[in-house]
Each structure stands twice: as C-alpha cells, then as structure tokens.
Fold this protein.
Amino acid sequence: MKKTTYSPGVLQYIPFFYVIWSDNLVSASEINVVQKAIGEDTSLNKDDRTLLNSFLNVNRAPTDTEQKQWKHTISNSNVRLVESDTYPLATFSQNMVCHYETQCPFNDHLKHIEVNLGIQPNHYNHLFDVEVAHEITSDFYNAAEIDTLLKGGHATVIDGFRKVLNDPIFKWDVHRTKEEFREVVLKQVQFLADKGYGAMAYPEAYGGTGDMEGYATIFENMMYVDGSLTIKFGVQFGLFGGSIQKLGTQKHHDAYLTNTGQAKLLGCFAMTETGHGSNVRGIKTTATYDQATDSLIIHTPGKNDNKEYIGNALHSKMASVFAQLIVNGKNEGVHAVLVPVRDAEHNLLPGVTIEDNGYKLGLNGVDNGKIWFNQVSVPRENLLNKYGNITKAGTYYSEIKNPNKRFFTMLGTLVGGRICVARAGLGGAKMALAVAIKHALKRRQFNDSIKIQEDLLMDYPSHQLRLTPLVASAYVYQITLDKMMRVYCDESQPDKRKVETQVAGLKSIITWYANDAIQECREACGGKGYLIENRIADLKGDVDIFTTFEGDNNVLLQLAAKGVLSDFKAEFNSAGFTAVLKLLGSRLNDKFNTMNPAYTNKVDKDHLYNPKFHKHAFDYRTRRLTYTLAMRIRDYIKKGMPSYQAFLKVQTHLLALGKAYSIELAYHTYCEFTDTISDTKNKELFQKLGTLYALYEIRKDAKWYLEQGYIGGTKSKAIRQRVERLCTELRPHIGVLVDGFGIPDHCMSAPIAE
C-alpha cells in the first residue's frame, strides 16, 4: 500500500477528472453530471467535495502540473484497464484506490458518471500509461506461421516481392484523371520490370527464371497495391509476352521476349472484338497470306469487327493480334500474328486506328482501347507459328491436323492467364476482408444498456456469419489455385485439356466469390467502406470485371460442365456425343439408390464435421447432375433435336454442374493439402477452416439437397447451426487469420484498418 497526497474520497475520482480534462474542454453537461454525483456521494467529506468541485471550475482549469500529478497517480498504481468490464473506468478507479488504500468499496456514483457521460475505453485508454487488456483477439495461433504455410515453396519470391512493394512508387493515392493514373501505373510496371519481375516466367535466356508459379503468387500480392497495376502488368508480361512465349517459336523469342520482359517493348493482346468476345473461334479479323509479297495482310472487315477493350492499347508499340488465317483461299482457323502498331516516336503506323475506351467502372489506370486494321501488311515471319506455320513455299502446315484440336490446344496454352485472374480476384477479396475485419475488431456499436463499453462489431454473431466463411473460402481457394498452377506448369503432362476444364470452373466460382466478398465487406464497414480512402470502393470497381475477362463466367462454367460430361474432352458434336453417353452409362450404372433415412437426418457433430461426409455430399451432387444432364440431352437427341439446340435446352443445368464440379474440386484439393501439414495445431486450424467452407457451401445449396432427399429438414437445420457455431469458435482467431494472408503493413493503407 502506497500513500498519495489525495484522500481516498478524492482519489477515486482522479481517473475521471483526468479523462474529462484530457482535451482541455469541459462542457456544461459534463459538469452537471459530475457535480450531481459528487453532491449525492455520501462517502465524501466537506473538504473532498470542495476540492473536487474546484476541479470543475472552467475559469480555473487544472494546471499542467496538476494533470501530470493525476497521470502519475494513475500510472504508479500499475492497475490494468480491462475493457471488457461492465464499468471499465469505475472498476479501474476502485482497483486504483485498492492499490493505495486498505479499503476500496465500489462506488455506484462513479458508475453514474460513466453511464451518463458515455465514456468508453477506446476513447481514453491511450491516455493511461497502464496495461490495457483489450481481449480482442487470441494469440494462440501465429500469423507468421500461417503465412509460411500459405506461401509454401514460394516464400523467397513472395517475401522479396513484398519488400519491393514498400518503395514509395507504390504508395496508394487517389487519381482523379485516367491520364494521370495511367502514367503512374506505367511507371510502376516499368519499375517492376527493372527488378526482373516482368520476365519472371520466361526462360533464363531471356532474362527470366522460368518461374510461372511464382509469377502467379506475385500477381495476387500486386492487388494489395492496386488493381490497375495488376492488370496492366498481366497484359504486358502475361498476355502479350505470354503469347510470344507460348505460341511463338525461338525466332520470336530471340527477337522480342527479352525486350518485352524489360518493358522496353510494350505490347497488347488483341483477341476480343466488339462483335465477338467469348466466341474466339468466331472472330472476324483476317490475316490473309499474300504470296507475292510473302506477307500477311491484317484487316478489320466490318463495323463491329474491331478489337475491343484491349489493355495497354494506348502505350503499345506492338499487338499480338488473333485473326482468321487465310492461306491460298482456305481459312485455317484462328492464329496469332505480331503486328507493329506505332513507330519509335509513338505515332500510329499506316492502316492502324486506335481509340481510347474512356472511363470505366474501375481499372482506370489501364489504357483500354479499340483497334482497327485496314490492310496492314506484316512479314510472314510474324505469324506465331508453334502450332501452325506457313512455309516458304506459301503452303500451310500444322502437326495437329484436326483444326478443332489445334484451336483448343492453342487456347489451352493461355490457361495460365485465367489462373492469374482468379489469383488477382482472390487478392482483392483478401484485401477487403483484412480491412473489414480489422475495422470490426476496433469499431464498437450498441450494448445491453448495462455495460458502459459498446460491443465490437466482430462480437456480433451476424457479423461473424457474414465474414468468417469468406475468410475460410479464401484459404481454400488459395491452396486450390496453387495446385492448379503447379499442374499447369508440369511439362510431363503436355495435354492441358483436363486442367483447362478445371481452371474454367474455378476461375468462375472464385471471381464471383471475390465480388461477393468485397460487397459484403463494403456493407460490413458501413459508410466508412464507401470512402475511397478505405480501399474497398476501388476493389469493388476493379474486381467486378474479373467475372468477364479471360472468359465470361457463365460461358466458362458451361465449358467446365461439358468437360465433365465428355470425360474432359473439349470438343462436342452430335456424332461424338453418342460416345459420351456410352461412357457415362458405364460409369454411372449404380444409379443413386434412395438415401438411407438414418443418414439423411444424421446430425451429430462427428458426422457433420467429417470430411468423408463433405466429400460424399459434393461427389453425390456432381454425379447426380452429370447423370441427369446426360439423360436429358440423350432424350432430346432421340427426338431428333440437333445437339446444339439440345444444349441450349439444358443450359442452366450445365451451369449448375460446372459450379458443383468446381466446388468439389476446390474442397478435395484443400483436403489433400491439409493432410500434408505436419504441425498438429495448425493442421487442426486449417481443417476447421475446411469444415466451415464445406458446410457453408452445402448450406448455400440446401434447397437442392433437400429436393433430392439427400438431407432432411433436421439435418439442414443442424448444418446451419454448425456453420454459426464454427464462426463463433473461430472468432478469437479471426484477426490472426487475416494477418495470415501476409498483407504487408505498407500496403494496408486504409485508415479504418490501422
């Protein structure tokens, strides 16, 4: 026990006076509340009341020396301020008196001041040099360990890249004009190229390290800086450079790849047309071989046949143009040709017209444009001829004789771009989740009218249910995309049709997830989430288009479903479809027996948390949708309906199958990963995240499962309750989970996340 210059009666009020006078501005209402409490407090003697009331004299405010003495009295007590106490400041004052005096009963009059002035710990805890028990998040798990698990074998690349992002050139800012914004982004792209990141996926001979997997990981991390940077970087090095690398041969690599990786040759990827976006096979731009000049004539034949929405169009010197290749009067299908579009002084070349697409919903730091070609001549050597070539004799040759197979083989080499778009969307979702959850861990709103301290947003079950499953999904999708890129880069598996089917579906569900997550985060932050400075607004505008480019999601889901239906065969026609049905018949001859009622209503925790149940539920849905879809198409064809019309009849069914297949694939991939985690503690955490993902996805499609009789009403209700329970169990660790994303502090610029 230590003595102070204050009596016990005065001492208990010192923390309150210190807080009230902290801003040197005491209002009349504050004075009235405190005077009333002092007047009714029977524990005070006359001298105590006189001194305390003198502290309320606005004409004689407490001196700096007096306030410092108050602060020393508070600090020297070494009492902890516990934010979760019902009356934190009153309890703190009582405990402080206990430190200095032998008797320290709780004073209800102090509670009266605290309640009526609405003083909350987050308003004053920074004033005290004492330990503050926030109790906001648990330190049971380590964010750095989680980040290490997520980085996997790419830790060196990712850590190095995150350090590079600390350069002032990447400082986030608001850009009011697209011209200013584009110049900033261009300089950022050139800066990264100077650091070697542009050529990263290219062979060592051209300045790279051949690390396509690492390239995909930095793509996600780039979203922590800006979406426009991410996309322009991807267009320059992934699409333009990637088309040269994947579709060209050594002569093209030698001529262009090094300068492309260094951003000395800026290029664009001209595939999409105004009249043809998703239907690449139907594009109208032509590349006609002229044997007399040994050249290709690139031409835009009609009004809506121009290239549209081409990123990097205004900064480019060259375009990788996709066109119908016509040789000796025969259309050999879509091929890519390198076409110079500007000279050294950046003037458009003859026959080339480029217009700015103007302002967009987002990504205004990317210079999207429209391109027309009017009989533009380029050398025959500019044909990217890995899969199809024009010989010196002027004849067309390809080792892949089937034009359909050749077309899909060519497009299959560009699947990496879809993985990167999904990674970018995931990065945007992670950024939004980190901002929203960090905000929810300090923003308080409402209480039970008993506690002084208002409750944290993150402590509300509804808020947990809004955000926690989205965090779980982020973990599942990162692991899945890592695996997809690893498979895509595996040169021992040259046939990319299977991974193309898988990525088509995953790109769809993940970019939709990203948009949904960002919107939920925006709403979860209220009006603060609507402010540009808090980053979510920009993420919302930027990521929206991810559902469209690199393949419209609805189209890609149908591609995935057709891949499932045909045992991952990319081509469909009425002749081949009969073979598909025979294949399905042999695989699905054990046609879904009626589910056991004991199973459909099994609700115990061990069963609902068991990955075997989740896998069975997802597999059942995929197989059921596959079988019923095949039977529907067969019945239509039996009636004489052309296969194309039959597919139109079942289009929504195709979409459901594509989505179901993709969710099953993601969960299976994640489970394979969790099995490899050696540390028991972190393994259990990752498994819990997987359980939440699975039950949340089953719950979202409960209507279908109920219709099929796979689950009963009791089980559906139990799944909902378990989802809510898991969110509550993960609440103490939610801050660590978003820190586990590894978003650098220098990228976390949103004020509400500080």
In short: Residues 568-575, 586-594 have pLDDT under 50 and may be disordered.
